[in-house]
Write a structure and sequence with these properties.
single chain, mainly alpha, two-stranded antiparallel ribbon, 38% helix, globular
């Protein structure tokens, strides 16, 4: 963990202690995460960081019920058949607007059931040269990094 994550964990520890929850911070390596979290499930709470995928389908390995260890990274071993079906529909649908409908429903399920608690999504300022055409139109689809979607539609005006 870098200094930012270490400071964040210390802050979370202090906040939780204020409401009577004792937290012991233990930094572990990836192999230990695999053994204790994924294989054995011997943990009460875990802070981890993952990037936001360029396509929502890439989140499948951490969400769907078929991605519970050893098949994936569904660490809370959470199951929701409706979410599984929506992720499959999103994966197999080519129309971006139709996919968006499925993934918005996925977001609603995740917000209701909270198998994970996302603490934040970093704001990634993005500068686009005015000669790049087509990229800015994709900044409001799904997820923060949506500006990088549909690169096949970008072109540079000469």
């Amino acid at each position: 963990a870098d200094k930012f994550d270490q400071g964040l964990m210390a802050a979370m520890q202090a906040y939780l202690q204020q409401v009577g929850i004792k937290v012991n911070i233990r930094l572990i390596d990836t192999a230990t995460v695999g053994r204790e979290v994924d294989q054995q499930g011997t943990y009460d709470w875990m802070y981890g960081a993952l990037g936001v995928p360029l396509d929502p389908d890439q989140a499948t390995l951490g969400l769907v019920s078929t991605a519970i260890y050893p098949a994936g990274m569904n660490r809370p071993k959470w199951k929701n058949s409706q979410l599984d079906a929506l992720m499959e529909k999103g994966r197999t649908t080519l129309d971006p607007k139709e996919r968006q409908k499925y993934y918005y429903q996925v977001d609603e399920i995740l917000a209701d059931e909270l198998p994970y608690i996302w603490l934040w999504e970093p704001v990634r300022p993005l500068g686009i040269n005015k000669r790049v055409i087509g990229m800015a139109e994709h900044q409001s689809l799904v997820y923060n990094m949506s500006a990088y979607r549909a690169p096949q539609e970008w072109w540079i005006k000469s």
